[in-house]
Amino acid sequence: MTSTTILVADDHPLFRNAVVHALREALPEACVVEAASATGLNQALEARPDTDLILLDLTMPGAHGFSALLHVRGEHPEVPVVVISSNEHPRVIRRAQQFGAAGFIPKSSPAESIGEAVAAVLEGGAWFPPLTVERSEADATLAAKLAQLTPQQFRVLLCLADGLLNKQIAHELALAENTVKVHVTAILKKLECHSRTQAAVLVKSLEPEGTL
């Protein structure tokens, strides 16, 4: 386990510290990296391409519900992601699974569950609470559409969801405005959306039920 690198992405310092402590108890030789936002998560992954596992909260700054999970799965499909959330709604758990998570740990779970989940996923398995909600074909279709986007197009899509204009997106992502226009056109086509507003509504649908 000396080469195991685990990234904990959660914007609540106290809970993040608790997770890190639980990981060090279960895997004392693992390297644990922390991030407190979607941007920090991306930066950490760029700095540590050898990351073996990500523990991800859904409500960090810069994320729209499941968008961080989808973004990571698109850019780093080889890295398994385990969602940690205070929202234990069965549909939230099912959606996390359908959007590519390898596991789901409710924040109300005992610390031992973190070690169990991490061990299971690192061994190539999965770790989810018992599921009572049927698989959603709508979510499967949405995941398939989003999977067509390139990482850069996904970033542009999130900016669209925030209501940014092309000029603002260009500034935010350090792109030429014409490049943004090309991306927006491609995004709308791949998502089968007729307008920027429709695409933004699609992103909003990634927000889980209830509060996380």
From TrEMBL:
<dbReference type="InterPro" id="IPR058245">
    <property type="entry name" value="NreC/VraR/RcsB-like_REC"/>
</dbReference>
<dbReference type="InterPro" id="IPR051015">
    <property type="entry name" value="EvgA-like"/>
</dbReference>
<keyword id="KW-0597">Phosphoprotein</keyword>
<dbReference type="InterPro" id="IPR001789">
    <property type="entry name" value="Sig_transdc_resp-reg_receiver"/>
</dbReference>
<dbReference type="InterPro" id="IPR016032">
    <property type="entry name" value="Sig_transdc_resp-reg_C-effctor"/>
</dbReference>
<feature type="modified residue" description="4-aspartylphosphate">
    <location>
        <position position="57"/>
    </location>
</feature>
<dbReference type="Pfam" id="PF00196">
    <property type="entry name" value="GerE"/>
</dbReference>
<protein>
    <submittedName>
        <fullName>Response regulator transcription factor</fullName>
    </submittedName>
</protein>
<feature type="domain" description="HTH luxR-type">
    <location>
        <begin position="142"/>
        <end position="207"/>
    </location>
</feature>
<dbReference type="Pfam" id="PF00072">
    <property type="entry name" value="Response_reg"/>
</dbReference>
<dbReference type="InterPro" id="IPR011006">
    <property type="entry name" value="CheY-like_superfamily"/>
</dbReference>
<feature type="domain" description="Response regulatory">
    <location>
        <begin position="5"/>
        <end position="122"/>
    </location>
</feature>
<keyword id="KW-0238">DNA-binding</keyword>
<dbReference type="InterPro" id="IPR000792">
    <property type="entry name" value="Tscrpt_reg_LuxR_C"/>
</dbReference>
